[in-house]
Specification:
Blueprint: E1 7-13, E2 25-28, E3 38-42, E4 47-51, E5 57-58, E6 63-64, E7 72-77, E8 84-88, E9 98-102, E10 106-115, E11 124-134, E12 139-145, E13 155-160, E14 165-169, E15 172-177, E16 188-191, E17 196-200, E18 205-210, H1 211-222, E19 237-240, E20 245-254, E21 257-264, E22 267-271, E23 278-283, E24 288-296, E25 301-308, E26 312-317, E27 320-326, E28 331-337, E29 345-350, E30 354-359, H2 379-411, E31 413-417, E32 423-424, E33 430-432, E34 438-440, E35 442-445, E36 447-464, E37 469-471, E38 475-487, E39 490-493, E40 503-511, E41 517-525, E42 532-535, E43 543-549, H3 556-559, E44 575-580, E45 586-592, E46 597-602, H4 608-622, E47 627-631, H5 633-679, H6 691-719
Antiparallel strand pairs: 1-30, 2-3, 3-4, 4-7, 5-6, 8-9, 9-10, 10-11, 12-13, 13-14, 14-15, 16-17, 17-18, 18-19, 20-21, 21-22, 22-23, 24-25, 25-26, 26-27, 28-29, 29-30, 31-36, 32-35, 33-34, 35-39, 36-38, 36-40, 37-39, 40-41, 42-44, 43-46, 43-47, 44-45, 45-46
Helix pairs in contact: 5-6
């Protein structure tokens, strides 16, 4: 909030119950460059009002005279709705200024004649329609200027609701132009010095198109001489601003330089006239609403008026904030005018029709900051106190970590007991492997005992295993835990996926009497017999991994004692075959006594993961730091191929998600336009606006992208 407020010079209300936007305000010397500026206001209800403010300073009342009834020189309703207004030389052979009014169905050019009246009755104006254009599409904005660098004439560019540009050279239609990936209208402006159009695409990239290129491309495209791939015009230059753009305005800095002011949601940019580099950038710490740029002569200083969402007007010279003042209301449009008795007046318009011309006075606001009650402050004592607090914090942190570890181990004890004998789910449940060998389906029943010496509250136990293992009851909760509590979860296999880990992760969370939240975690290795059975080893395999021991090898009856009773007498003592019960894949472990190496081999690479993990873990427990492992080149290539495929599908999902986000935003904007068109009373039908076609095409593209996203997610789920 600013300390100062703007001072009112002239104010009025534009109708009652009408709505206005940023395109409803136009300040221009309509009756000649040597005349004063005229305020032209259009409304969404179709009313056109032209004001000629005559306010001047009155020394008797020490204030301005304000609004007079004679300041309103024209008030008429010319359409159901006025979308945009522009002034220029729109009649051939005439150097006077005319007014172009854009309605939902027509572009009408009016000739406004000023009849100077007496002092009592003021000036009178006559408004006459010269010509009009019936529009084939629903318009969104109007741009006027000397396209093609013509002298003494101004042409029209109408941006339609679907982003298409329609060009008129005064009374004749010339060509249409569409941009790539453009379904909705965007900010558009024309720079007369360089004869270029500057706009922003849906990807928040500013693009520049030369009018000559657009005209040539549009005319050739009508003749159908281009291929389908060449139907889109490429920009002459582009710049990625990375944010939504609220306004684009060209400003003539000198006879040889033009600046392009771009107002974004977070930054204020000024581009050079070559449109390839930034003159300066200003980071905004507020949400801007609208802006207006102008040049102070004769110094050629570029000034920018920016209106913030806090009803504050900020005046910038380059990146320096020169002034800030509080506005009386929230405007939707701001500009600068030179009136008869005062120059450099700021004109603002609200969405409800409040029109005010003000200037930047130095009158402070009514808010007065309360006086500060200063008291003596001892900096040495404060510094000593700060040092003591830092020491206390360090000591508390160290003792807290030590106490927390000891407390966690003593407050809640988790004892896990896994029986050596697994239970069969049912006498008739048998699993048939790929080798036509039938095994009973086993269930591992685990006893987990929880004990505590103190009372614990809200105790929650979560059991987590990796697929294809499944826990029948993975969540337990106790409102209060005292002494001992036993739970008996059961684990079994419910899929034929390869098992990558046999860990059971037990996580316990609880609350102490003091209200502290604690977490205890314990990891247990499940018995391998739940997924593996001993079988004859295989000699021919595709993948292998070698583990070298620096000490003599350990026998299999010591490494895998649980599988020794299942081995037959004909099985060699230097090889152990393990078969997955559900998938039937066989993994062979060969012990080379001469080379002190273990070789793990299989025809399925993923099936080797669990065996290698358990073998390395058991060897490390008996021979810590005395083993070296190596993996075959083909195994590494397989891993790399899986990583590349996974990365490609993730990139594809990211690309599809970005497309869906863009399509969703476009569909939402089209729905808003449809709702607005339905609410407005127009003689044209809804189908003639082209909105249903845009809605259907956007919806079909969005549905197609969703199907592709679902297919890609299924692929990545299967890979995981």
């Amino acid at each position: 909030m600013s300390l100062f407020r703007t001072k009112e010079w002239w104010r009025t209300e534009c109708g009652h119950g009408e709505t206005f936007d940023g395109q409803s305000l136009l300040v221009v010397p309509l009756f000649g460059d040597n005349k004063k500026d005229i305020i032209i206001v259009s409304s969404h209800s179709g009313y056109l009002r032209i004001y000629s403010p005559s306010s001047q300073w009155n020394d008797e009342i020490n204030n301005s005279t304000g609004y007079k009834i004679t300041d309103l020189i024209i008030e008429t309703q010319i359409a159901d709705c006025i979308i945009d207004i522009k002034s220029g030389k729109f009649i051939s052979g005439s150097q006077d200024q005319q007014l172009a009014v854009l309605t939902p169905s027509k572009l009408i050019v009016y000739k406004i004649t000023l009849n100077t009246g007496t002092i009592d009755y003021g000036d009178r104006c006559a408004i006459d329609a010269v010509y009009e254009h019936q529009l084939p599409r629903f318009p969104a904005s109007l741009i006027a200027g000397p396209f093609g660098s013509v002298k003494g004439r101004d042409f029209f560019c109408i941006q339609c609701l679907d982003g298409t540009l329609i060009f008129y050279e005064q009374e004749s239609h010339t060509f249409n132009q569409s941009f790539k990936d453009r379904l909705l209208p965007e900010r558009l402006t024309y720079v007369a010095k360089n004869d270029v159009f500057i706009t922003i695409n849906p990807g928040w990239i500013i693009e520049c198109y030369r009018y000559q290129n657009m005209a040539e491309f549009g005319r050739v495209l009508v003749e159908n001489t281009r291929d389908i791939k060449d139907r889109w015009l490429e920009p002459d230059w582009s710049f990625n601003v990375g944010e939504a753009v609220l306004a684009i305005q060209p400003v003539t800095l000198s006879s040889f330089e033009v600046g392009i002011v771009v107002l974004g949601e977070r930054n204020l940019y000024c581009f050079r006239d070559n449109c390839t580099s930034i003159k300066y950038t200003k980071k905004l710490d507020y949400n801007p609403l609208c802006c207006h740029a102008y040049v102070i002569e004769p110094d050629g200083k570029l000034m920018v008026l920016v209106v913030a969402d806090t009803d504050t007007l900020l005046v910038y010279e380059g990146t320096t904030l020169k002034w800030s003042a509080q506005l009386p209301f929230t405007p939707v449009a701001v500009t600068r005018a030179n009136f008869q008795h005062l120059e450099g007046v700021v004109v603002i318009l609200s969405d409800e029709g409040r029109l005010e011309a003000c200037y930047l006075g130095a009158e402070p606001s009514l808010f007065i900051a309360p006086p500060m009650h200063r008291r003596g402050f001892d900096y040495q004592a404060a510094e000593q106190e700060l040092i003591e607090l830092r020491k206390s914090g360090k000591n508390t942190g160290r003792s807290g970590d030590h106490m927390s570890n000891a407390t966690l181990e003593s407050e809640l004890l988790i004892n896990v007991n896994i029986p050596n004998i697994l239970e069969q789910s049912s006498p008739s449940s048998l699993i048939t492997t790929n080798n036509d060998v039938k095994y009973p389906e086993l269930i591992c029943k685990i006893n987990i005992e929880l004990s505590s010496y103190t009372s614990l509250h809200d105790v929650q136990i979560i059991l987590d295993v990796m697929k294809p293992l499944h826990v029948i009851e993975y969540y337990y909760s106790f409102s209060n835990l005292r002494d001992r509590q036993t739970i008996q979860p059961m684990i079994y296999i419910n899929d034929d996926l390869p098992l990558l880990s046999s860990e059971l992760r037990v996580t316990a969370t609880y609350e102490t009497d003091n209200g502290d939240l604690r977490i205890v975690q314990k990891i247990i290795q499940l018995p391998l017999r739940i997924v593996l059975r001993a079988c004859p080893p295989e000699n021919t395999t595709s993948f292998s991994a070698t583990i070298k021991c620096l000490d003599p090898l350990i026998n299999f009856n010591q490494l895998f004692p649980e599988f020794i009773p299942d081995t037959s007498q004909r099985q060699p003592s230097n090889a152990l075959g393990l078969c997955y019960i559900h998938s039937g894949h066989v993994v062979t472990i060969v012990a080379g006594t001469n080379t002190n190496r273990y070789r793990v081999q299989s025809n399925d690479a993923l099936s080797m993961t669990l065996i290698i993990q358990m073998l390395v873990g058991r060897l490390n427990s008996r021979l810590p730091g005395r083993i070296v492992t190596s993996i075959g080149q083909n195994h590494l290539q397989l891993i790399h191929s899986h990583i590349d495929a996974h990365f490609a599908i993730r990139e594809r999902i990211k690309e599809i998600s970005n497309e869906i986000e863009l399509m969703t935003a476009q569909l939402r904007n089209v729905e808003k336009k449809l709702l607005r068109s339905v609410r407005e009373t127009n003689v044209r039908s809804l189908a003639s606006t082209g909105l249903p076609f845009i809605f259907n095409s956007t919806y079909e593209l969005l549905t197609s992208q969703l199907d592709q996203l679902q297919a890609a997610q299924v692929v990545i789920f299967m890979r995981n």
